[in-house]
Amino acid sequence: MSGFIDRSQWKSFLGEFSKRNQHRPAHVEVVGDIGAQVEAEHLPFVGIGFETKGAAEGSVEIAMGGETPADQRRLTHLISNVERIAPLFAVSGLEDGLGIEDRDGVKTLLRFETLPEIEAHVPPAQPRA
Asked: Is it the case that residue 121 has pLDDT exceeding 70?
C-alpha cells in the first residue's frame, strides 16, 4: 500500500469516503499470518469510521449490509490498533477501496466490486425487414 493518509486526517477522510461510496457493492478481506480470509462479499458498503476516544480509541470500524431492515445480511468489522490507511485505486484511476494495516502488520482490504453493465449483455437490435 502506498499514498498513506496522515493520521490527523483519518476521521475526516473516512467520513468523506463513506459519503462518496455508500451502497456500493463491496467485499472485505483480511490478510495476515494465516493467509487471506474473506470476511464478506457482495454487500452494500454502509460506512467506515475512526474512533478517537474511549476503549476503542485508535480503531477503525467498517459497516456493510442490507439496504433495508428486512435484509439480514450485515457485517461490522473492527480493526484495532490501526497504524496506516491508504486509498486503493483501480487501473482506470477510480477509487477502488481502502487498505488498512494494524500494529501487527495484518492488512484489511475493503474493495468495491464492479458489476457488469446490463448493456453489455443485451443483444444488438436486429434490422427491420
From this structure: no
Q: Dig out the grid coordinates for 7 from the structure.
A: 493520521
CATH of the domain at 88: 2.30.29
Examine residue 45 and state whether it is found in any structural domain, yes or no.
yes
Beta strand extents in the chain (DSSP E only): 25-32, 35-50, 60-65, 74-79, 82-89, 95-102, 107-112
Q: Is 106 helix (H, G, I), strand (E, B) or coil?
A: coil
pTM, two decimal places: 0.80
Max Cα–Cα distance, the chain, nearest Å: 73
Tens-digit pLDDT profile for residues 61-107: 999 997 666 667 788 999 999 999 999 998 888 889 999 999 999 99
